[in-house]
Amino acid sequence: MREELAGFTIGVTADRRRDELAALLERRGARVVLAPALRIVPLSDDTELREATRACLEQPPDILMANTGIGMRGWLEAAEGWGLAEPLRSVLASSYVVARGPKARGAIRAAGLHDQWSPASESCDEVVNHLRRRGVAGQVIAMQLHGERQPECTLALEAAGATVIEVPVYRWAPPSDPAPLHRLIDLIAGRLVDAVTFTSAPAAEALLRAAGDRTDAVLSAFRGDVLASCVGAVTAEPLLRHGVPVSAPGRARLGALVRTIVDELPRRTVTFKAGGHLLTLRGHAAVIDGELRPLAPAPMAVLRALAQSPGRVLSRTALLRTLPRGADEHAVEMAVARLRAGLRAPRVVQTIVKRGYRLQVD
Fold this sequence. Notes:
By secondary structure, the chain is an alpha/beta fold.
């Protein structure tokens, strides 16, 4: 198959650039579930941002910590609307500029400013350590925030003797429609998606918050069958704190994130021979002798259960536990019938009279 992700279902939690990420995944054959965990609320009219800007003009910062490209551009655009863009550029031009990542660096250079240093890991901790080694006692630091306050970074710099001006350029808010996010949480808990992508740490935190009493089920799924794929190390931190293994590219780019998923997901599949056929299980499909066979959730659940114990007979009662609540033994028979029809290979699943079903393992 040319489409490396055919048969896989992938959740996308991004708001900004979600369509771009979805297109990259769908181009490779994936089924995509769009479920923004947060949305960005611009603060172009916000009094806090205006006050922070005036504080930078009154106390020209010795150091500028630029965290995001969209944040730096938004700050300068807001300052333009207030007639303060040129004075702001003038004071920032004299600062030691730290760009936390390539997007922030691009925004700095587009504004005619010059960046002096960037962390290899794009992490706040590495920036703080660099500045402390450089010496910040008695200096003013303008910290452009990226959605939420970073109290650990601020406190660490203040403890080293710096004065920190926090610049809140935008903030995160819950999605306008929370239904897609809760649907994705149900799919994760039910292990009906193969991977979930995260492009910001706040989005990962928001999904776990929204999970509520399903948090343990979501974390269990991420620690097992569902791949948590993060755009970079900073994004991965909230999940790592919960003991979730994450997949992340070396460079924090959407294209690199997709390539990592393309490399990782096929390696996690189950392949076996049954009924004279070679089968590979993917998220919502089976690949049988190289041909993709999409399956509905119930037949796929039955196939997965049988594949976990190849050749072993599973009773209708055991298979019933894999189906949605409210199903009965008749639903198991229907699921098996639909599975055989979907695979177009009737010998793969064998009926054992009065006992149940098993895979006809070669």
